[in-house]
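Hi there,

I know you've been waiting on this one. I reran it after we fixed the sequence typo, so this is the corrected version. Both the input and the resulting structure follow.
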Amino acid sequence: MNKLLAVFKREYLQAVRKKMFIIMTFLLPLLMAGLFFLPGLLMVKGMGEKKVTVLDGTGMLRGTFEHQDETAEPAKRVRAREIPSTIKIDYVPRPADRALEVTARPYLNRLSDADKRQQLDGVLLIPWDSLTNSDARMRFYSRSATDFITQERLSSVANRGIRRYRLTQKGLNSDEIDRLVSETPVDAVQLSKSGQEKKGGAATFMVGFMLTALLLVPSFVYGLEIMRGIIQEKNDRVIEVLISSMSPSQLLIGKILGVAAVGLTQITVWLLMAAGVGAFAATTASIAGIDVLQFLSVSFFIYFLVFFILAYLTYVCVYAIGGAVCNSDKEAQQLIAPITMIMMLPWFMMAAIITNPDSSLSVGFSLSPVFGPLTMFVRTLVAEPPMWHVLLSIAISIATIAVFFWVTAKIFRVGILSYGKRPTIPELWRWVKVA
């Protein structure tokens, strides 16, 4: 036991004393936040200002497309706000011209104009019979085949204007039309088995993804650390000195537990950092209608800790095997890459699991070896699975870890002193039987 603790202490202190560990412990949350929010900001920034010409064959939709000032009547101000300020519209009425494509040709040529001041980003054609013909079809020309955001915005505004005109023809006034076509928002609410109401919807979806990443990333990062550490010690022949004074199993368990403690240390720091800004985040989120406290119950911390440990110990054994049977990082990566892809199946199917946590797919993944910790944690986060599902998942994961430790120890016992060609699957099976 003393030798195992010595390995544990060495692995732990060697990792936490590194400058990179300290830097990444405090920097990684900022990087993860950037990965979630920066692409959206860049997309909005990258879209820039769009210059669009609307050729209205009906000649009746000017008020729908032209921005109104704040002195305009309320109904017109509402319609104006449907068009983002980044879309600059030049409205051209053509009520008497039914050959709209011919009239539109000069504007379509401006899509490829070399002069940026004259160049257009899109042209929307509204047929002359759009107000009366339900089969009429608008056409949107653009310099980009994927400018669907601008297309959908303009289409929505045009259709809203057409509906308003048709209702006006039925004798309704503007106030009645606004009341009839106004949209009623929907609040997503999760109703627990105890009758407690919690805010759901997109916020829960995003929180599920972020917390799952927080559960998954350290397991793979420190699994790689163990794999590389074992390969380095093999190449430096340090491993031969170590196992001369202790058993391979003691060395393996000490390494795994030491790096697990490193991961838990980092996770604890992240949670403390989250708690430090929790008050500000809760205040900001409450203004947006999001109850952050629903994700921070006592059960959340218990489940997170339990399933983090289970996921970590499950994945790290696989990386330890990779380090034991390979002689270089390149060989190990080639061996581990397809296995890692299989282990990450729950992550690739996370959208389906979060949106339907009680489906047969979600239940099957949560009660299966290897995939159980990650999937069951997500189910406990977004739903209330039966307690026997949770306990069975934990039991299956513990049994899986015990088998993995047993197999890993046997392969490790032979593999750490094996050099040269990487063993094949039949050779690994013989190692398990003879070790």
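Quick highlight: The chain has two domains: 49-181, 198-434.

Best,
R. S.
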